[in-house]
Amino acid sequence: ERAVIRCIDGAYYLMFRVCDLRARHSLIEAHVRLYCIHRHPIHGYQATPMRLDQPDDDLGATILLTLPSMVVHRIDAWSPLAPPTAHRGGGLGEGASSRSLSSAASSMTAQGLFASVSAALAEVEGTPKALVVGAEPVVGAMSRPAKEAFRRPRFPAAPQRQVDGDSGNRDTCVCPFCGEAFPTVPMLQLHCEYNKWSDRASDIKAEFCHRKLQAEELPELAHRDPTREEIRRHLARNFCEVV
């Protein structure tokens, strides 16, 4: 009755308008904040902050209430309105711990992976085995939390926004072959396609070369927006109130 969920370019957004109808003493430099009151299966009822695309909460989410203004929240993997299938592996209820999360944070960066590759290069004097740590490729050394942290919520990390990745302001996916991070999936795919030929020209063994990513591999490497049906079922079965 007071808000709508709209699909734009395959992503779903919660939208509503606000306005201060007072003719005098209107609010100046107002800020908008949204919270979702919902029931967590382990922690019980809790209030979860909701990131805003409009007005941009990175800029303080300031708004002029003299005229009707739109408030927009994207239902991405970090949104409390998204079903659990959109962010598997989040929360302490699935075995996460502060120790594993801190180790994931230190190992998930491209710089950390590059350091591992550099050390291997020094040991084997530039042979293709430089991409191996022990007996496994570098990607095998990344824990599940490390691989998921770019695209899914991980307690107690701060909630992110997928729009930051779509606009190139944050990395959201990691190359499974070299560990380089990219804001969007098309950039990751172009990277793998280009380096496939570069690796072959460098006489790197086929098992360590970049290759074209298959469609079935992308869900484990990139963010996925929930579908209309997933959102509908989630909101129908669970208590969620936005304030």
Written account of the structure:
There is one protein chain. With 243 residues, this protein is of the alpha+beta class. It has six helices and twelve strands. A hairpin with a 2-residue loop joins β8 (132-133) and β9. The longest helix has 17 residues, at 185-201. The protein is elongated, with a radius of gyration of 22 Å. The two termini are 14 Å apart. The model is unreliable at 89-140 (pLDDT under 50).
Helix tally? 6
Give the number of DSSP strands. Answer: 12
- Quote the beta fraction: 15-25%
Using the CA coordinates, give the radius of gyration.
Answer: 22 Å
Tell me, rounded to a whole number, the average pLDDT. 77
Low-confidence runs: 89-140
Largest sheet: 3 strands, antiparallel
Structural class: alpha+beta
Task: Tell me the overall shape.
Answer: elongated
Main β-sheet, spatial strand arrangement: 1-2-7
Tell me roughly what share of residues is in helical segments. 25-40%
Distance between the termini: 14 Å
What sequence of helices (H) and strands (E) makes up the elements?
EEEEEEEHHEEHHEEHHE
